[in-house]
Amino acid sequence: MVLAGCRGAPRDDADPPPRRVTQFSVINALMLGDYDGVFSIGDVLEHGDFGVGTLDHLDGELIVLDGRAYQVNGEGRVLDAGSDRKTPFATVVRFVGDGSLRCPAARSLAELDAFFEQRVPHANSFVAVRVEGRFETLTLRSVARQEPPYRSLSEVAKEQAVWHHEKIAGTLVGIRTPAWAHGLNVTGTHWHFLSNDRRVGGHVLDCRIEQAASTYQVCTDWLVRLDDRPEFDRLDLGRDMRSQVSDVESARGVGE
Ligand SMILES: [Zn+2]
Question: pTM of the predicted model, to two decimals?
């Protein structure tokens, strides 16, 4: 069917709507060890300039900030993630910011989460949150590149590297996923960090804020890109892995 010239035809994906969150694959696939990168970082950047994820072979943490993609590898080094690199799982938005909030001097990540849940009470929407400032302390983690046959993320996370930093300036990149989307993405807020000097980053397990400001964006449009390989179809993605996801993604994980 030819749609050329049709009014209301979809716009080019090169300019995604700002309130659309796009995720590549689903969290349960990553939990089950589906670490092969099938989506290019270039594709991810076409769908957003702000977000989180990982890289091919679970090779560290992915941070997308201001249209650039960074890898924090298993040793904690921050590297540019070129557009030809691949990812098995990422979530991005084109960040424009709906509103801004002055952050409290939160003494923990849980306290920061509670603040945003109260002040941006869109419990059933995706929300992107950007926090810029100075941190008293930060607890970050990354994971080391894996080789097949892959183990589950719960197993791999037992070997995660954890770093504690003090007095550091940078940006928290947060994607909040509603509870109804469990199995699809990390429910609650998934936070990654990148320092202003681009030398320190990772998945955030905890933090204590000295002084910070935030902007946020409520997303009303949600796009899920799925892998079309047979390996993906063989995964039992309907399993309830909420407690395992929570253990892997939070400070309650075995790495602490
Ligand atoms: Zn993460």
Answer: 0.93
